[in-house]
From TrEMBL:
<dbReference type="InterPro" id="IPR001214">
    <property type="entry name" value="SET_dom"/>
</dbReference>
<dbReference type="Pfam" id="PF00856">
    <property type="entry name" value="SET"/>
</dbReference>
<keyword id="KW-0489">Methyltransferase</keyword>
<dbReference type="GO" id="GO:0042799">
    <property type="term" value="F:histone H4K20 methyltransferase activity"/>
</dbReference>
<keyword id="KW-0808">Transferase</keyword>
<dbReference type="GO" id="GO:0032259">
    <property type="term" value="P:methylation"/>
</dbReference>
<protein>
    <submittedName>
        <fullName>N-lysine methyltransferase KMT5A-A</fullName>
    </submittedName>
</protein>
<dbReference type="GO" id="GO:0005700">
    <property type="term" value="C:polytene chromosome"/>
</dbReference>
<dbReference type="GO" id="GO:0006357">
    <property type="term" value="P:regulation of transcription by RNA polymerase II"/>
</dbReference>
<dbReference type="GO" id="GO:0005634">
    <property type="term" value="C:nucleus"/>
</dbReference>
<dbReference type="GO" id="GO:0043516">
    <property type="term" value="P:regulation of DNA damage response, signal transduction by p53 class mediator"/>
</dbReference>
<dbReference type="InterPro" id="IPR046341">
    <property type="entry name" value="SET_dom_sf"/>
</dbReference>
<dbReference type="InterPro" id="IPR051760">
    <property type="entry name" value="KMT5A"/>
</dbReference>
<feature type="domain" description="SET">
    <location>
        <begin position="23"/>
        <end position="144"/>
    </location>
</feature>
Length: 158
């Protein structure tokens, strides 16, 4: 008899409610991007991986904060017809922290997707595997932004 697999969204909801990162990941430096998240074990297509945590605020508040000081850690999204922002600018002292360190990948590199899920009526940003992910493989998703600092071409004048 084949065992039933728990749906990835249900697994995500449990980790969000517990306010902890799933095991099986480590962080290391990835120049010039900064820190990145890597799989410490194999994960399969569709698996819940991590959550993107930070302070939940309105789209307007997030936009105002971004105008005052730009941050690569603010994620804007829609949930039930309303605009929200997760501001993960501050490094968390406790709770889930790996999701905010996942780096951008180009289309051919992307191996995870970010989805908004409903956890007891509240939005949560969760990362899921788009394909099988091997041990020591970096997690990468498309930020949907073109003007990333490490993508800028540098002109050298001789």
């Amino acid at each position: 008899m084949r065992s039933r697999r728990v749906k990835p969204e249900k697994v995500a909801q449990e980790y969000v409610k517990a306010q902890k990162d799933r095991t099986g990941f480590y962080v290391k430096d990835v120049p010039p991007k900064g820190r990145g998240v890597f799989a410490d074990t194999k994960f399969f297509k569709g698996d819940f991986l991590l959550q993107y945590c930070g302070k939940l605020c309105s789209w307007e508040t997030g936009d105002k904060l971004e105008g005052e000081q730009s941050s690569g850690f603010r994620f804007f999204f829609k949930f039930k017809g309303q605009g929200f922002c997760i501001d993960a600018t501050e490094e968390p002292v406790t709770g889930p922290s790996f999701g905010r360190l996942v780096n951008h990948g180009e289309k051919e590199e992307v191996n995870i997707k970010l989805s908004v899920i409903d956890v007891e009526g509240n939005p949560s940003l969760c990362l899921f595997a788009l394909c099988d992910i091997n041990q020591d493989e970096e997690l990468l998703y498309d930020y949907g932004v073109d003007n990333l600092p490490w993508k800028k071409k540098v002109c050298v004048v001789a």
